[in-house]
Structure prediction request, 175 residues.
Amino acid sequence: MGFKIDYSQANNIGDVKDGTYEAVFYMVTENVNEHTGSDFIRFDLIIRNDVDQKFQNSHLFDRMYKSKATGKYSMKRLAWLASAAQLDQSKEYNSMEELCEDFVAHPVRVTVKNADREYNGKQYHDVNITRWEKTQFPKLNHQWKDTPDKLIGNTSTTTASPDDVSQNEDQDLPF
Prediction:
């Protein structure tokens, strides 16, 4: 029993170019950086495939670390992201996990910028989200390749996948 490679599925391989994209939150998790021990929220978004745009189904990642001075997340930045995602402003959350789960499947409009950086003498290339806005297409018809856990009844979103390379961004990688 064999298989074939379908090149038509490789149309979005490579870095997402600078620009503004309609996206949807796929997974939002609270994690700990294994190198520094710092808490952070990891935002995993997918460029929507129900809007005519390049790089459909590509993932975009962003992180928000707790302030070293206060040990807390920036409520101003969380409010900015929640406003862009149009979360219910009157909702009260009992935990950060609850807030993270609430972002899932909400559409947003994001602007990304490519940047190079150096860390410990090594060069890295990042695709950074520089702006968050409300979507221009509020009706979400995105066709999920892998349905987010929240949408299939599993609300455990706090564990990262073992093959999550972005968690290991500071260690030596073969690529």
Remarks:
- Confidence is low (pLDDT under 50) at residues 153-175.
- The CA atoms of residues 31 and 121 lie 26 Å apart.
